[in-house]
Amino acid sequence: MSGSKPDILWAPHHVDRFVVCDSELSLYHIDSAVSSELKAGSLRLSEETTATLLSINSDTPYMKCVAWYPKYDPECLLAVGQANGRVVLTSLGQDHNSKCKDLIGKEFVPKHARQCNTLAWNPLDSNWLAAGLDKHRADFSVLIWDISSKYAPETAVAAEKVRLSAGDPEAGLVVTKPLYELGQNDACLSLCWLPRDQKLLLAGMHRNLAIFDLRNTSQKIFVNTKAVQGVTVDPYFHDRVASFYEGQVAIWDLRKFEKPVLTLTEQPKPLTKVAWCPTRTGLLATLTRDSNIIRLYDMQHTPTPIGDETEPTIIERSVQPCENYIASFAWHPTSQNRMVVVTPNRTMSDFTVFERISLAWSPVTSLMWACGRHLYECTEEGKANSLEKDIATKMRLRALSRYGLDTEQVWRNHLLAGNEDPQLKSLWYTLHYILCLTAIYSLNFLYMKILMKQYTEDMDQKLTGNKGPLVYAGIKSIVKSSLGTTENLRHSRSGSDRQADIIQYLSEERSLALQLCGWIKKGTDLDVEPFLNSLEQEGDWERAAAVALFNLDIRRAIQILNKGASSGKGDLNLNVVAMALSGYTDEKNSLWREMCSTLRLQLNNPYLCAMFAFLTSESGSYDGVLYENNVAVRDRVAFACKFLNDAQLNRFIEKLTNEMKDAGNLEGILLTGLTKDGVDLMESYVDRTGDVQTASYCMLQ
């Protein structure tokens, strides 16, 4: 504390109390701010804390330094160093025990009056109080007082009373004989006891730092330096000491005391205070005159022990606790990285220095970060929907379930992936159909070739070619190969009282496409009943009804809708749709068509919308079905293979293939097959999702 600028001291054993000292001593109690309104007599320190004034002591004028008694009892005993060199014991508490009463008001007076610059209680033998004074040519500048003794410690006159001040009315309250006298004909600017040995005292003298051993006061260890102010020991590394001079801070290693191990960046203004953080290793705070910035030096990574030529690594940063100039600051003794600062006009702020956050990814993709003494981990275990998880997490979980390794029932791999991604489901069903159909066509072709060879050589020319390679090329190639071989068939909708002819198209290649879409089994038999049964078992009523209708079986579609409405998981609105279907008519201007067109716009399910779009469309114009994007690609392609002519089908498949490639949509593998187009599509998918796992397993097929 210099001049009249206030200083702050935290109570050693009450973490919610601190003292502000300048011309008087003010004791404050810090508390949490329970509301935005301040209580009477409270000061706002931060958004979370307030301070309440408990007591004021104005009995010690001319204060130059203050030190709080380090032990719990008496709890509010303070030593005050004055401008005349006297050290006075005073109190701010309501402690009425006999020990405190005997000590309060006691004065320790040097032989010659001069300013007291610094005070330091011995942390172990708390009766010892060291005082550092200005220079006097005939006196010592470091005096160590025993606050409990009234007699001089001289062995020759053991019973001689301590000399008292001449006019003091209370005998025994003024002590003039110190326990130890050190530093003759010199000035002491700062003091601190060394925690490693209670008999060692480090003093910042006029031109040197000196270590005094009270077991042999005639000898001392010293090093010449100008950095003699504010000596303070790192509470976590007792051989590390900081001191300062003007704008420079020197860091010392007491084991190699010849020179500083580090000199911190010189500041443009003189320093007024340096202090180690008591809750964080290697963190030093410094304050310069007329500044609202506190500079922090993090020596967390300093090598221990420090080598001869090795400078410790430090991280430097600055914090601004308030807008006004800071007179002093004090670290909180227990709250991590917390300090209270005070301005020259006694405005105070409670401030926490936040640590830099270090991030780390674990091998299993959880994120961990460190902030101070705390470690935080962020995982995706709490996410209910696996689609929200990071792709690395999903790939790890899929690998644990042996995803992609079921080569016998290839379609099951989408179940191993969690059965939540419709694109993966479409991909693995497509691969399953491709592998099955390729194997069947290849075996049949080989069998027929062997069987017919014995009849005639030109029989091979009459045999159907091997469709296996065509299956691998996808529906886009299959459709192109069918140009000019398609037959027109006219069919009417089964189950309707009024029959309307609808043109369907049939060829061997289109049947192959329907097989890849999963609608029918092998051959030209267009029976979709097994497919409808499987959809009903899965509870996919809307899709099953749509597929039945697209195969011109209105009666079967109505049956499925009614069954779905009566099931426990079905939608009761399916009955309404079934009733609407039952009134189907092909009259273009009928009320039924008008009402269905309106109903279609109110439906949310894409398959129900597609059903009414189909019923209200003109023959050959089915954009309402083909471009209903929420209908599965395989169902739209199968529909196109049944109701579009060769030119229309080729244009639609070409356009849809390009859309799937650009979007990286795995449903497009049905169209591209395992060709170059399929590789391009898979590349877009990986770029979009990062799922290299699925791409690898797919390409292995």
TrEMBL record:
<dbReference type="InterPro" id="IPR001680">
    <property type="entry name" value="WD40_rpt"/>
</dbReference>
<feature type="domain" description="MIOS-like alpha-solenoid">
    <location>
        <begin position="395"/>
        <end position="643"/>
    </location>
</feature>
<dbReference type="GO" id="GO:0034198">
    <property type="term" value="P:cellular response to amino acid starvation"/>
</dbReference>
<protein>
    <submittedName>
        <fullName>MIO protein</fullName>
    </submittedName>
</protein>
<comment type="similarity">
    <text>Belongs to the WD repeat mio family.</text>
</comment>
<dbReference type="Pfam" id="PF21719">
    <property type="entry name" value="MIOS_a-sol"/>
</dbReference>
<dbReference type="InterPro" id="IPR037593">
    <property type="entry name" value="MIOS/Sea4"/>
</dbReference>
<keyword id="KW-0862">Zinc</keyword>
<dbReference type="GO" id="GO:0005765">
    <property type="term" value="C:lysosomal membrane"/>
</dbReference>
<keyword id="KW-0479">Metal-binding</keyword>
<dbReference type="Pfam" id="PF21720">
    <property type="entry name" value="MIOS_WD40"/>
</dbReference>
<dbReference type="InterPro" id="IPR015943">
    <property type="entry name" value="WD40/YVTN_repeat-like_dom_sf"/>
</dbReference>
<dbReference type="InterPro" id="IPR049092">
    <property type="entry name" value="MIOS_a-sol"/>
</dbReference>
<keyword id="KW-0458">Lysosome</keyword>
<dbReference type="GO" id="GO:1904263">
    <property type="term" value="P:positive regulation of TORC1 signaling"/>
</dbReference>
<keyword id="KW-0853">WD repeat</keyword>
<keyword id="KW-0677">Repeat</keyword>
<dbReference type="InterPro" id="IPR036322">
    <property type="entry name" value="WD40_repeat_dom_sf"/>
</dbReference>
<dbReference type="GO" id="GO:0008270">
    <property type="term" value="F:zinc ion binding"/>
</dbReference>
<keyword id="KW-0863">Zinc-finger</keyword>
<keyword id="KW-0472">Membrane</keyword>
